[in-house]
């Protein structure tokens, strides 16, 4: 029988901030979005204070000071590193995993029961191992389908009596029905607001109502996706583990500015920075792109300003992955699209028609990337991997950086990604060598 586990980091961003800060163990913690705008993560202590997700920080700033809430800017480098450690730890305990997002993954538990392994105890072992080795608290949901595993994870997270692990197979049919009946249909994976509105009009209000619905009738009205959800709730696995992720057909790197930008050189700096990221991603994934484009947007909410929402793109005569060519194309598109005195809020770079490098058929008369360009790019990648991101970069990426760079005034140290931010224990004492 197929058995899945869904392992999810609790309040992941906030938990990452607590790993190297024991003084924050019982203190409310929130993490803010880009440019320190809205709340995107809350510790359990912050949730108890009534702080809502996506709440603008300026509305609760005084409240956070009064309640001694620790507030952090998003430290994506730290979160990605701890996520990788968490995934590696989970993978060491099971046959294989299928990462679903930065803070959760599905794990294959099929066959373990036949070897005499208690799946619930295996769930607790994974939970304890991740907390011991990484410092991230997790919950584990175990079930014969991905949708039920996700639902069990939700139950494990919200019902303290389960102690962080919920195994669907441990429940009697009566308890399974009760577990489904205690949550609204909106808590089911893949059932969004629109689905919820239509389902409630049909009298389907709880997860149990949806599990007892006719899958074919749901398919006729809503399509195959929701029909698969119904079958999964009924115990039939329709969504397998994705052990090999499909390659992306487009890669985009963009970011909103902390302040409105009108200077062309400042925009060029941001464009160059994002182009470097696109090139690095292409080479890391072993792919090449046939098109290069840029994003150039003003703020649509400032109705008093002249607006521009530009996404110009250029096709390439041959597929590329070298950063220099991407920057050259992006710069040309910027020159064509830039309007003086416009106030820009966001810019970025994207590469399209992305294919594996080995799938490209070379033309005898077609120009290709020079060997020297490829060597330079690979050398830069290796140096940046060893000594830190953007140790080597294109000079234009430094233009106006203080103007367009994302505002992260409450950024925590890069404990695991930057040498100078390594945690220190006590003062450094000089010792005299006795020989």
From TrEMBL:
GO terms for molecular function: damaged DNA binding; DNA-directed DNA polymerase activity. It comes from the Bacteria. Transmembrane segments: none annotated. GO terms for cellular component: cytosol. Residues 4-192 form the UmuC domain. Gene3D superfamilies: 3.30.70.270, 3.40.1170.60, 5' to 3' exonuclease, C-terminal subdomain, DNA polymerase, Y-family, little finger domain. Keywords: DNA damage, DNA repair, SOS mutagenesis, SOS response. Belongs to the DNA polymerase type-Y family. PANTHER family: DNA REPAIR POLYMERASE UMUC / TRANSFERASE FAMILY MEMBER, PROTEIN UMUC. This is DNA polymerase V subunit UmuC. It comes from Parasutterella excrementihominis YIT 11859.
């Amino acid at each position: 029988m197929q058995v899945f586990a869904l392992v999810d980091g609790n309040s992941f961003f906030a938990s990452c901030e607590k790993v190297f800060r024991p003084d924050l163990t019982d203190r409310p913690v929130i993490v803010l979005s880009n440019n320190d705008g809205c709340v995107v993560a809350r510790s359990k202590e912050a949730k108890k204070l009534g702080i809502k997700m996506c709440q603008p920080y300026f509305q609760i700033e005084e409240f956070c000071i009064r309640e001694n809430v620790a507030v952090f800017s998003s430290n994506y480098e730290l979160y990605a590193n701890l996520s990788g450690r968490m995934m590696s730890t989970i993978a060491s305990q099971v046959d294989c995993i299928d990462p679903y997002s930065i803070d959760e993954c599905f794990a294959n538990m099929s066959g373990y029961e036949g070897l005499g392994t208690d799946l619930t105890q295996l769930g607790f072992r994974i939970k304890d191992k991740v907390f011991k080795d990484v410092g991230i608290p997790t919950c584990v949901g175990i079930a014969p389908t991905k949708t039920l595993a996700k639902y069990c994870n939700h139950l494990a997270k919200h019902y303290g009596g389960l102690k962080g692990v919920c195994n669907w197979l441990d429940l009697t049919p009566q308890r399974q029905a009760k577990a489904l009946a205690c949550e609204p249909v909106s808590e089911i994976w893949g059932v969004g607001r629109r689905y919820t509105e239509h389902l409630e009009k049909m009298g389907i209000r709880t997860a149990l109502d949806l599990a007892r619905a006719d899958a074919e009738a749901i398919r006729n009205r809503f399509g195959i996706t929701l029909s698969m959800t119904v079958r999964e709730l009924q115990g039939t696995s329709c969504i397998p583990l994705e052990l090999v992720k499909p390659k992306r057909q487009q890669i985009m790197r963009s970011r909103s500015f902390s302040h409105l930008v009108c200077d062309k050189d400042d925009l060029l700096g941001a464009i160059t920075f994002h182009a470097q990221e696109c090139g690095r991603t292409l080479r890391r994934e072993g792919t090449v792109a046939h098109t290069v484009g840029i994003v150039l947007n003003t703020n649509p909410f400032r109705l008093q300003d002249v607006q521009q929402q530009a996404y110009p793109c250029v096709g390439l005569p041959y597929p590329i992955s070298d950063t220099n060519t991407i920057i050259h194309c992006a710069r040309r598109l910027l020159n064509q699209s830039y309007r003086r005195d416009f106030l820009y809020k966001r810019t970025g770079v994207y590469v399209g028609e992305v294919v594996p490098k080995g799938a490209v058929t070379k033309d005898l008369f077609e120009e290709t990337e020079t060997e020297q360009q490829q060597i330079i790019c690979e050398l830069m990648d290796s140096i940046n991997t060893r000594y830190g991101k953007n140790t080597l970069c294109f000079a234009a990426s430094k233009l106006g950086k203080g103007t367009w760079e994302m505002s992260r005034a409450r950024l925590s140290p890069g404990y695991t990604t930057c040498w100078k931010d390594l945690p220190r224990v006590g003062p450094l004492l000089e010792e005299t060598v006795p020989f």
